[in-house]
Amino acid sequence: MENQDSYLPTLKQLELFLALASADGIAGAGAKLGMTASATSHALRALESSLGTAVVDRNAAGVVLTYAGQQMLPHVRDVFAAMQLIRTTASASAGLKTGLLRIGSFGASSSLKLLPPLLASFRARYPGVDMFVIEKPDAEIEQDLIERRIEIGVVTLPKPQFDTQLLAIDELVAVLPVKHHLADHPTLHLRDIAQYPLILTHAGSQGLIARMFARVGLHPRVTHELSQLMSILEFVAREQGISILASLALPEKYEGVVYRKIVPQSPRRVGLACLNDQRLSPAALALWQQARRTTRS
Questions:
Q1: What span, in angstroms and rounded, lies between the C-alpha atoms of 50 and 151?
Q2: What is the mean pLDDT of the chain?
Q3: Rounded CA gap, 275 and 137, in Å?
Q4: Number of domains composing the chain
């Protein structure tokens, strides 16, 4: 009698399927997993053969899941969530002496100011738990949470699709060359900022900046879009424009630039997010609870 297990998809094939759900192309999805184009094509054919149905519409532009693929997607995500729970729960049986916790961070505000003290305190309590932090834009952290690539992410709030808890509130400030004539003013209005070339960040505050201008009916003159904080500060210092950044992300001082308050103010809420705080692994739950105790103290 033929072995029915031979018809089950492998974890590698399912991992490729998850990558396809958020990729622009089949080869690109495989490349994210370190697979060659030919290996990707072979794995996809093997997956569809084992399932007995197509999961990707070959006639569509880009990557479009078939109806069967769309129906499979939440169940495949649950498979990887269960695998993560199995791995971390098994290693946590001796009081969290070992384990691995994957955490996402949306940018400098969290990576420089919020995460280090939280992780240092956690490591002091659970020295055997390894922590893997990956820094990506806010939208990609959301996607990694949905795809179960990370358990906890530091994100901008609100995020109604996740369980969240507040870590900090900061505000957006103007960053100007020290010799800019607006630098003489302690507070700047958005209409004044909108008159000058704006260096826009690709990090977590980009959407908030766009909404801030839209609320007062202004359209900023965006001349540069940069992803690295130090690049933005250096461009401003060299008088290539002005910028707007979250105060938590900024160093206390940077030569050649000054920080100024903006009106109307736009506070930004930053917090932890997870898919379900009732289904966290032991290590993730310990960090979640520690963050809650810290913010309440």
A1: 29
A2: 90
A3: 18
A4: 3
